[in-house]
């Protein structure tokens, strides 16, 4: 979970960095439920939200939709 959040944050604040289709799909799915970290805040709710989309299959479904036949 923390790895997904930190990667999402890195790509959000470095728009020149290009990621693959699957990573972009994952980033989009995470971005729908977790706002960018622009100031200090507790991350407990962010971790829980990402964990939910991992556990319920939403994240992998987004990646699979963006990368047919690869995942």
Structural overview:
This protein has 71 residues and is mainly α. 65% of the residues lie in helices and 0% in strands. It is built from four helices and no strands. The longest helix is centred in the middle third of the chain and has 13 residues, at 21-33. The protein is flat. The two termini are 19 Å apart.
Could you list the spans in which at least 5 consecutive residues all have pLDDT below 50?
none
Q: How many whole angstroms does the radius of gyration measure?
A: 12 Å
Query: What is the typical, i.e. mean, pLDDT?
Result: 93
Q: SS-based structural class?
A: mainly alpha
- Tell me, what's the shape? flat
Distance between the termini: 19 Å
Order of helices and strands: HHHH
Proportion of β residues?
under 5%
Count of DSSP strands = 0
* Tally of DSSP helical segments: 4
């Amino acid at each position: 979970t923390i790895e997904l959040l930190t990667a999402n944050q890195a790509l959000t604040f470095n728009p020149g960095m290009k990621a693959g289709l699957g990573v972009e799909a994952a980033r989009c799915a995470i971005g729908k439920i977790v706002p960018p970290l622009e100031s200090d805040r507790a991350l407990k709710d962010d971790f829980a939200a990402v964990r939910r989309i991992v556990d319920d299959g939403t994240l992998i479904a987004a990646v699979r939709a963006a990368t047919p036949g690869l995942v």
